[in-house]
Amino acid sequence: VQLQASGGGLVQAGDSLRLSCAASGRTFSGYNIGWFRQAPGKEREFVAAITRGGGAAYYGDFVKGRFMISREATKSTVYLQMNSLKPEDTAVYYCAADGGSSYPRKEFEYDYWGQGTQVTVSS
Question: Coil, helix or strand for 73?
């Protein structure tokens, strides 16, 4: 499956952004889709994921209710709605697809990766 992340940009603290991850190539419904992020000089960290059928969504501890992940099967797209953005949310955000694990949170559990989209939050 091929993944295309988009929607990043430069915003101010407190603003919102919606990232999109468009999938193509294989049956979208067969994959868990996750979002990760990587800030300069830091390791990539888990942000959120949604299960194959969209029945369950789960988040990294730092999210604290500010982000919401959803999927739209008809468009083979997963969204990450990010609200109340903070400067520390500045990072490259990647989407990834997993065809096998249950509730994957680790990078190695994901089989396919998109190219990333830059999110910059100014103070």
Answer: helix
Q: Which of the pair, 97 or 54, is modelled with greater confidence?
A: 97
Full 3-state SS string of 16-66: CEEEEEEEECCCHHHCEEEEEEECCCCCCEEEEEECCCCCCEEECCCCCCC
Cβ neighbours for 67, distance < 8 A, ≥ 6 positions apart: 47, 48, 59, 80, 81, 82, 83
Is the pLDDT assigned to residue 120 strictly greater than 90?
yes
Distance CA 29, CA 10 (A): 31
The label of the residue with tokens 């999938």 reads 23
Neighbour-count burial of 40, counting CB atoms closer than 10 A to its CB (0-12 exposed, 13-18 middle, 19+ buried): exposed
Whether the Cβ atoms of residue 84 and residue 14 lie closer than 8 Å to each other = yes
Q: Sorting pLDDT into bands at 50, 70 and 90, what band is 102?
A: confident
- Sheet (strand 67-72) strand order: 2-6, 17-24, 77-82, 67-72
